Amino acid sequence: MSPIFRRRATRAPQERLVTLIRKPGCHLCDDAQSVIEKVCADLGVPWEQKDISQDPQLHDQYWEQIPVVLVDGAQHTFWRVDEQRLRKALTE
């Protein structure tokens, strides 16, 4: 029997979700938001932001890495967002 290979299903940009986990007064968070806004607007990808000061679970999980970017619920990066890397993650 031949092995079965699974292709990763490609999702349309509108079916993706970028989440920015941030905190108030964080200049790195502001920088990350600027990149996310630009990339998501260009690609038509929805995005949201969550404040660790309002969510104890997010605070416990991410407080040392703020800002954190999730793509479809999985951690993509933290501290700095590379525009090209984010674009690639959302289009592959």
TrEMBL record:
<dbReference type="InterPro" id="IPR008554">
    <property type="entry name" value="Glutaredoxin-like"/>
</dbReference>
<dbReference type="InterPro" id="IPR036249">
    <property type="entry name" value="Thioredoxin-like_sf"/>
</dbReference>
<dbReference type="InterPro" id="IPR052565">
    <property type="entry name" value="Glutaredoxin-like_YDR286C"/>
</dbReference>
<protein>
    <submittedName>
        <fullName>NrdH-redoxin</fullName>
    </submittedName>
</protein>
<dbReference type="Pfam" id="PF05768">
    <property type="entry name" value="Glrx-like"/>
</dbReference>
